[in-house]
Amino acid sequence: AVAIAFAREGADVAFTYLGKLEEEDASDTAAWVEKAGRRAVRISADLRTAAACRRAVERAVDELGHLDVLVNNAAFQCEQKRFEDLDAEQVRRTFETNVFAYLFMAQAAVEHFEDGGVILNTGSVTALDGSPTLLDYSASKGAVHVLTKSLAKALSERGVRVNCIAPGPVWTPLIPATLDDEHVERFGADTAWGRAAQPVEIAPSYVFLASSEGSFYTGEVLAPTGRSTTR
């Protein structure tokens, strides 16, 4: 949804996807970007290493010629009912995907920003409220929020703006794939609207923060959660 929204505002888009697991989604996304009259560059990558992130960014620049905006959106979550069942392997994968990849992608991207630039990180309402069954995921998203604020300060002298979008419940493939049936059934019921958002309702937040209209925003966590939030 974010890729399509940027394309409809006139951007060429390069995006990563997780190999064969997401091949169909990648093809569908590329088709919608191209339908908007823009170029779509699909990059198959597992972004948990600095080398993979650098290769992805370099491929995007090679294909598109330059880079203006980086959107960090890769994520992994796995629900655990009991805290004791949370093992080291899961925690490692969660942080490698949700935090390390964001940092490595930012490092690779800033080298190619020519006139300022924008980095947009995807946080989560779980970083604001916590979650009893997504402890490692919530902690990783909390790290993303603070990484955003820290990067905003570190990169402001270069004219780079760094912001975070922290959605509430959103219907993405991640939800039925990682949550039990009971959780899926009540997913989004605690919002003001009694439902989860559709991805298209969140995508405009990214476009706004990347646009000239969002030029005074940096180090912010924009939280389209469907209800009031505290930070």
Write the layout of secondary structure elements.
Blueprint: H1 2-8, E1 13-17, H2 23-35, E2 40-44, H3 50-64, E3 69-72, H4 88-110, E4 117-122, H5 125-129, H6 135-155, E5 160-165, H7 174-178, H8 181-186, H9 199-210, E6 221-222
Helix pairs in contact: 1-2, 1-9, 3-4, 4-6
Quick one: how many beta strands? 6
Q: Give the overall silhouette.
A: globular
Low-confidence stretches: none
> pLDDT average, as an integer?
93
H and E order: HEHEHEHEHHEHHHE
SSE-based structural type: alpha/beta
Rg on CA atoms, Å: 17 Å
In percent, how helical is the residue content?
40-55%
Largest sheet: 4 strands, parallel
N- and C-termini, Cα separation = 26 Å
Strand arrangement, major sheet: 3-4-5-6
Report the β-strand fraction as a percent range: 5-15%
Tally of DSSP helical segments: 9
What key phrases describe this protein's structure?
single chain; alpha/beta; 231 residues; 9 helices; 6 strands; two-stranded parallel sheet
Descriptive notes:
The chain is α/β, with parallel strands linked by helices and 231 residues long. The chain has 9 helices and 6 strands. The longest helix is centred in the middle third of the chain and has 23 residues, at 88-110. The strands form 2 sheets. It has a 4-stranded parallel β-sheet, with helices on both faces. Helix content is 46%, strand content 12%. α2 (23-35) links the parallel β1 and β2. α1 runs parallel beside α2 and α3 runs parallel beside α4. The chain is globular.
